[in-house]
């Protein structure tokens, strides 16, 4: 295809503002998916995406428009955990539709995505979506949007992804305003990898955006970062299913298949060239996503360990951001310390492990990575609180984030109180409109990974939105709090906490464990300690009576039901020493409010 007829764009928005639904209408209007096969959020292909109604993986689709243009649309995930997916999608585009729910207005991820698109120099088309909603206020939010990106409120398109209203005009606007891709057709081939996924049947499928030159089928391709070469088994475009094509030229978006089995062989951000005539300079790539949050994953049944290891290996094929290494816990046995981009990522990985590999897992309270320097000059990264060193510590550094909260005026006080309670420093405050305020905080990542978002939502009746990005690390006064059951430290319960909060933390954990751990045949003392100093204690009293004693022998069904219910209750129990501890206890640790 002649590059002047190609338009590459993505749709960016706050979560739930309707990206996937708008993408559906585009697929229909351009005839790529016919009425019969259409289903809601067509591009959310994973089961877990469909159930949760969220997009996790980006998707690229090629759509013909008005017989002369080719539109490549890239649908992106909205959740903050997956913003690295958004940034790689932006690399492949010249333009972005900035979608805003006309009943909600600008939200935190609207801003974050807009800034990202501006950094990539993309043409930005402002669009108000969901104008069919009775609560829509397109005039008001057009003002807000225009104020944000500059320009005239009248230039904001008004569409409904649900009814299809305005979508034809939107497609025409894309042709008009998104620049055609520019590249050198005669130069050696260079293609940027913006995604790669593992498919059990086909191996790794690599998604590329051609920048210069051309790649033909049956060529040998070369990955520029490693110089590894692979034979091309198939290449083509996605429309909406993978369709083999006779090659990809300047500006085109498509896929390559080599039969390679591991996505790490086909790294996102790498440049693909051809071995017969390789390019000399790779395209500017970008960094691998780094895990921000760690948690221990242990099989409930120790004999499932090999299954868990294979399952993690398999998921890793498809998820470059997932990190894991074996670890042993005296309380939980053999398991893995796993690194994630955030809590949603953790939840999704865990759910997939349980569902797709039929595993029952215990996950420990999530924590961030601490960098500890010792007085003797050595330095270590602590990804597991139980490994926090006991010797002479010089400094402990913890990761910080820049958090942006958008909130209606009325809740500014509540938001500030929350952020201050989490050791936040206010960096700035702006009024986006007379009623809506943007607050910028510097916050320790550890303070927001667990229940910050829930707290924010409940304190603002659901009206505030949050986005954050990692910034740097700062020295901090942190200590390790251990929890002891019957006098034995349970490594899986150890946590790293700010000194000023350690006492309150120890107390609340001890209380929480007392209420979560069922009574046993014997008394169980619970203690919280910093080093050798006990800072809080609680006791779980012993049970006296056998549960069956109540049933005075006669009623068999009642007895069976009782036993069954007991078994049910035991499902997620783990023996720690002689004590039975429920799964909730392992993650209850961080929700201290
Ligand atoms: P995404 O997270 O940005 O991909 O948003 P989705 O496309 O998954 O949509 C989020 C929710 O908004 C879903 O329940 C959609 O049915 C609904 N929705 C999306 N677009 C529209 C629209 O134009 N009008 C109305 N009334 N609802 C919409
Ligand atoms: Mg979506």
Q: In terms of structural class, how would the helical and strand content be classed? A: alpha+beta
Q: What about the largest sheet?
A: 8 strands, antiparallel
Give the neighbour order of strands across the main sheet: 10-9-14-7-8-13-11-12
Rg, alpha carbons: 27 Å
Helix content: 25-40%
Number of helices: 14
Output mean pLDDT: 86
Through-space gap between termini: 58 Å
Shape: globular
Subcellular location: Cell membrane
Main location: membrane
Family: Belongs to the GTP-binding elongation factor family. LepA subfamily.
Catalytic activity: GTP + H2O = GDP + phosphate + H(+)
Descriptive tags:
25% helix; alpha+beta; elongation factor; binds guanosine-5'-diphosphate; binds magnesium ion; 6-stranded mixed beta sheet; 8-stranded antiparallel beta sheet; 593 residues; 31 strands
Describe the structure.
There is one protein chain. The strands form 6 sheets. The chain has an 8-stranded antiparallel β-sheet with strand order 10-9-14-7-8-13-11-12. Strands 2-3-1-4-5-6 form a 6-stranded mixed β-sheet, with helices on both faces. Strands 19, 20, 21, 22, 23 and 24 form a 6-stranded antiparallel β-sheet that branches. It has 14 helices and 31 strands. It is an alpha+beta fold. Residues 19-20, 55 line the site of magnesium ion. Belongs to the GTP-binding elongation factor family. LepA subfamily. Belongs to the TRAFAC class translation factor GTPase superfamily. Classic translation factor GTPase family. LepA subfamily. It is an enzyme of class 3 (hydrolase). GTP binds at residues 16-21, 129-132.
